[in-house]
Amino acid sequence: MTDRPTAAPETVEESRLTVALLAAAALVWTAAMLWSARVTITGRPNAEMEVTSTAYALPGAVSADLVAGACVALLVLTLISRRRTLGATTRFAVATGTGLLVGVLSALPIITINTAGSLYAIVGGTVAAAATIGGAIAGLRIPPVIAAAAAAAIGVFVIGFVLNLFQEPVLELLGAGDTESSANAAQWFSYGQAALSGLAAGLIAYAVLRRARRRAGGADVRWPLYAAAGAGPGLIVVIGEVLSRTAGAEVLQLAEKVSPMDQLAQQILSTARLNSGLVVLFVGAITAILAVGRTLSPAADEDDPQSNSSSSETAYHSNS
Predict the structure, then answer these.
(1) Quick one: average pLDDT of 112-134?
(2) Any domain includes 160
(3) Is the pLDDT at 159 greater than 60, yes or no?
(4) What is the mean pLDDT of residues 223-228?
(5) Which domain of life is it from (predicted)?
(6) pLDDT value for 311
(7) What is the reported pTM?
(8) Residue 5 confidence class, pLDDT cut points 50, 70, 90
(9) How many domains does the chain have?
(10) pLDDT for the residue 315
(11) Cα(67)–Cα(29) distance, rounded to whole angstroms?
């Protein structure tokens, strides 16, 4: 009789409740970002301010749609997997198609702002591309890792939202006053927020994967996957920034042409977002590794010379 092969722990599907909650949270996040962007853009009195507002809103909407596409695709895959096992190609196709559907629906509130020009079509296309990429990532056969990264990304968003509510008093504590000191305080605030977000990302990813371990009967994923999940939120920010600079490049270029001040602001914000994403990525990965490392017990050293010497001495005396 041959033993049935045991599925690798990283391939075990997440629970429907967990994935459904993640998908709901991601969709609420995305809807809030898109609604805020639409209200801000349509509330501007002239075309120049509409362009700059669109450029400011683009990266946040792209990041939110990346997570939404991944979470909804993961939910669809989880529901289908309860009935049948999907092959790698079918799984990837279903996930990518689901992400594309989320992207198309997300693009509608932006495209319908003004259908006359190409500006909002570009933004809508960028948002749709982000959700499609998120769905494709969910097609990888590592559901617990995708869920952990998505949960960490949502946690990072919540932390950023809460910290921004207290931004003014924190900036004052950091010495904000004139132009130079305000810029320095804003930079320290950005780095502090990124470090705190990375710490939270690593811990959340670790907690979700440890819960998945219990569902897998005690089998744990490999430690590099903990690092990947912890780095997920930072990677999402980096991918979102890259998409904004490439697919949405025309929008950013138009915003930079409004005035020299807007050009400088766009460059500063773009650099700050990229740097923050990298900080979250590395801090999240390191935190997750340290968290899982604390749970690992040292392996017994079978070649310990002292134990071998004692065993040999015991055997010698017994033979004597």
Answers:
(1) 87
(2) yes
(3) yes
(4) 91
(5) Bacteria
(6) 46
(7) 0.84
(8) very low
(9) 1
(10) 46
(11) 9
Instruction: Please state, in angstroms and rounded to a whole number, the distance separating the CA atoms of residues 157 and 25.
Output: 11
Over residues 112-123, the mean pLDDT reads 81
Does residue 315 lie within any of the structural domains?
A: no
Are 35 and 246 contacting, i.e. CB atoms less than 8 angstroms apart?
A: no
Tokens (6 digits) for 182: 């305000």
Print the domain residue range for 281: 9-179+188-296
Is 317 part of a structural domain of the chain? no
Task: Write out the chain in H/E/C secondary structure.
Answer: CCCCCCCCHHHCCCCHHHHHHHHHHHHHHHHHHHHHHHHHHHCCCCHHHHHHHHHHHHHHHHHHHHHHHHHHHHHHHHHHHCCCCCCHHHHHHHHHHHHHHHHHHHHHHHHCCCCCCCHHHHHHHHHHHHHHHHHHHHCCCCHHHHHHHHHHHHHHHHHHHHHHHCHHHHHHHCCCCCHHHHHHHHHHHHHHHHHHHHHHHHHHHHHHHHHHHHHCCCCCCCHHHHHHHHHHHHHHHHHHHHHHHHCCHHHHHHHHCCCHHHHHHHHHHHHHHHHHHHHHHHHHHHHHHHHHHCCCCCCCCCCCHHHHHHHHHHHHHHHC
